[in-house]
Design a protein that fits this description.
Elements lengths: L35 H14 E2 L8 H5 L5 E5 L5 H9 L4 E5 L3 H14 L4 E4 L3 H7 L6 E7 L17 H10 E11 L2 H12 L4 E3 L15 H8 L5 E7 L5
Parallel strand pairs: 1-4, 2-3, 2-5, 3-4, 5-6
Antiparallel strand pairs: 6-8, 7-8
Helix pairs in contact: 1-4, 3-4
Length: 244
């Protein structure tokens, strides 16, 4: 989970066959400075917790050193919520995509400080990761927290959560697996709800927007927003079993 504008898109080319618009990726390049602590964590922990991108299916059991339900997170920002959720759910593996180097360093620092063993990081565009590294029906869940809302009307086509990607995410979920999106921008929340509702592989877990699941913590940004009267909307859908 991240603060808004954390799941951003920008430099990788989407390979042929990826069922997602070529103009849309999961990040934009952002300026940022890696702190000394983040750099030290990267040097010490990246060899163990950062996986190389390879255009072939990932063996989850080999990557995590165990067999366990695996959740894919797209864009974790500085990793505050990711670390919180991983600590809360030690029996679940978390495969986390983020290209922003200070964010990767920050999450590695949290991994070291909290002694977390159930996180692996891919510092690569999640659209390519999804297309080439995630086997069909292999995920227990997907988290997309506070993706770039692209507020301006002429930019809404750049939003991440659109039908081609959602169809591909659904194909990677095991039956009963979940897709959880959260945003603080109501027009985007409405779009997410509409797009997920139209995906035949998925069913809504609630009549509309979902109550905030217990595992998603309130970030500092979100707490500030709540005090100012801003809302946050959660959308949680589940993968339907295959037709007989």
């Amino acid at each position: 989970m991240t603060e808004p504008d954390s799941s951003r898109d920008g430099g990788h080319q989407v390979p042929p066959g990826v069922a997602h618009p070529r103009a849309i990726r999961t990040f934009v390049r952002r300026a940022g400075r890696t702190t000394t602590g983040q750099a030290r964590a990267f040097e010490r922990l990246a060899p163990r917790f950062v996986l190389p991108y390879t255009a072939q299916p990932l063996d989850f059991a080999a990557a995590f050193g165990r067999t366990a339900p695996t959740v894919l997170e797209i864009g974790f920002g500085m990793g505050e919520a990711t670390a919180h959720i991983a600590a809360l759910m030690p029996g679940t593996n978390f495969l986390c995509c983020e290209v922003h180097e200070p964010g990767v360093g920050a999450l590695l620092k949290r991994i070291g400080e909290q002694g977390l063993e159930n996180i692996r990081i891919l510092q690569h565009d999640a659209v390519e990761v999804l297309a080439t590294m995630i086997p069909p029906a292999s995920l227990a869940g997907v988290h997309i927290f506070f993706p770039d809302p692209w507020h301006k009307l002429r930019h809404t086509k750049r939003r991440l959560v659109q039908p081609p990607l959602v169809a591909q995410l659904a194909s990677r979920l095991a039956p009963g697996g979940y897709l959880h999106c959260a945003t603080d921008w109501e027009p985007y929340a409405q779009q997410i709800l509409q797009v997920l509702s139209a995906e035949p592989q998925l069913a809504n877990s609630a009549p509309g927007f979902a109550p905030k699941p217990h595992y998603r913590p309130l970030t500092k940004f979100e707490n500030r927003g709540i005090k100012l009267g801003h809302g946050v909307w959660d959308v949680v859908f589940h993968k339907l079993p295959p037709h007989p």
